[in-house]
Amino acid sequence: YQPAPRLAAALGIGKLHVKREDLSGPALGGNKIRSIELILAAARDAGADTVLTTAASQSNFCRALAGCAPRAGLGCRLLLRRAGGTTEAGNLLLMRLFGAGITWTDATDPWDPAIRAALDAEAASLRAAGRTPFIVQLPGETAPLAAAGWALAAEELVGDFNAAGGAPDLLALACGSGLTLAGLALGFAQYGVPIRLLGVSVQQPALRLRPWVETVIVRTAELLDWDPAGAMESVILTDDQIAPGYAQPNESGLRALTLAARTESL
Q1: Does the structure show a pLDDT above 90 at 196?
Q2: pLDDT digits (tens, 9 = 90+) for 222-238
Q3: Closest of 208, 206, 204 to residue 245, by C-alpha
Q4: Is 245's pLDDT higher than 90?
Q5: Cβ distance 114 to 107 under 8 Å?
Q6: How far is CA 94 from the centre of its chain?
Q7: Under 8 Å CB-to-CB from 226, ≥6 apart: which residues?
Q8: Is 17:168 a contact under the CB 8 Å cutoff?
Q9: Are 94 and 67 in contact (CB under 8 A)?
Q10: Is the pLDDT of residue 244 over 90?
Q11: Is 201 among the residues known to form the active site?
Q12: Is-contact 75 49, C-beta < 8 A?
């Protein structure tokens, strides 16, 4: 949890901190690591020897899962959306480097039933080969477990806030599957910390994402035996940064990236 005073000054705001999840662990880190810790533990508890998941071809989650699975003694299989590109660079190159097996789907919507059918077919193929797969589907059955990683992390953030002199007025985060946002909203409600949470969608329309986040909050609360009351009241969702499309940079986004790099080396 690092102060970013130069970036704050450039943006004309009083105080700014950055939670450095890019430094959070193996496989280049990222906010996915906290969720993956719980997912891999569940896979091992289920007696699995392989984790099987799906996402875009440059998915941070798939890269992190592929990198963490070997440390847990598990294999990794990935069903990737072909539309994101198949050139072995960036995250896709790292997935291969970490030893993940990769198959492709032409479906483009993460919630498309065809993706679940393809996952089930992959699982059946693994079982026929004598493996024991554990299906990880973030926009599906695994959502509460993944969100729980961030619900539990809220306690750590509260400690960060206290050490920095108090809670922020607003916490902003990128929002893909919405699970980090859902977990934090539930966690802060559990710990009684009233923070506005701004989820900036990277793919889905806010009208589609908001009811999904609300559903995940309720399901995660059931998993943790927590009370979800009031958690959604802190959530703000915007989709006004999706242009020209998923994983495609635009001029304003590149300006923001450059500003962060040149003020704080982010």
Answers
A1: yes
A2: 999 999 999 999 999 99
A3: 204
A4: no
A5: yes
A6: 17
A7: 151, 186, 190, 220
A8: yes
A9: yes
A10: no
A11: no
A12: yes
Bridge partner list, 79: 54, 103
Distances (CA, A) of 247 to 87, 117, 185, 204, 231: 15, 25, 25, 12, 29
Strands (E), the chain: 2-3, 17-18, 50-56, 75-81, 101-105, 133-136, 170-175, 196-201, 235-238
What pLDDT does 228 receive? 97
Residues with Cβ within 8 Å of residue 243, at least 6 apart in sequence:
250
Expressed in percent and rounded to 5, the helix, strand and coil fractions of the chain are 50, 15, 35
DSSP 103: E
Which residue type, as a one-letter code, is found at position 175?
C
Out of 35, 57, 59, 234, pick the active-site residue: 59
What pLDDT sits at residue 43?
98
* pLDDT per position as a tens digit, 22-59: 998 899 999 999 999 999 999 999 999 999 999 999 99
d(CA 198, CA 88): 33
Supply the mean pLDDT for the chain: 96
**Tokens read off for 161:** 């806030």
C-beta neighbour count of 150 within 10 angstroms:
23
Quickly state the pLDDT bin for 248 (edges 50, 70, 90).
confident
Find out whether 32 and 44 touch, Cβ atoms under 8 Å.
no
